[in-house]
Each structure stands twice: as structure tokens, then as C-alpha cells.
Design goal:
Length: about 90
């Protein structure tokens, strides 16, 4: 049995969001994102309420990783990486 590995892609704004996160925490976030390659639907996945359908979030400390899963393409698109206080606020246009 072959296990499919997903590709990870980042939306343009996530680079800016990741750049302001402290380096040690940023590494933990990247480690967490890397695990999504093998299992994009981990046990603690939550659908993101009040947003476009198809977005999910997982926790990494005080930060939330918001992403979509495109099974046909074997793609996980990281849409936002933000502090937990910011995850449910209206999307910014940056």
C-alpha cells in the first residue's frame, strides 16, 4: 500500500505573517506544517467557522495554522498563520 504525500504551498501573505513570529516558535510551526504532508487531517483539526467553507485550522501553541486541503491535487495550501487572538477576525486584504 502506497501512502500519498501531500505538497505544502503557502499563500503570499503567509510569508509576511511568518516573518514576524519569533524564530523558535516559527520553527515549531514549520515542524507542525511538515506533518500535514503525511496527514492533512490530524486528530485535532477544526473547521474554521465564519469563513469560506473548506478552511481548517490546527493549533501550534498560541498560533493557529489555517489551511485548505485539495485532495485531487494532493495539496495543502497554508492560508494564514496567526496568533490565536487574530484567527477569527475579518480577513485583511494584505
Amino acid at each position: 500500500m502506497r501512502i500519498s504525500t501531500y505538497t505544502i504551498a503557502f499563500a503570499p501573505r503567509t510569508e509576511k505573517q511568518l516573518a514576524i513570529i519569533p524564530k523558535a516558535i516559527r520553527q515549531q510551526i514549520f515542524d507542525r506544517i511538515d506533518k500535514l504532508k503525511k496527514n492533512p487531517r490530524p486528530e485535532n483539526i477544526e473547521p474554521l467557522h465564519g469563513s469560506d467553507s473548506g478552511l481548517f485550522r490546527i493549533r501550534q501553541g498560541d498560533y493557529r495554522i489555517v489551511y485548505s486541503i485539495q485532495d485531487k491535487l494532493l495539496l495543502v495550501l497554508i492560508v494564514r498563520v496567526v496568533h490565536r487572538k487574530e484567527v477569527y477576525k475579518k480577513k485583511h486584504t494584505s
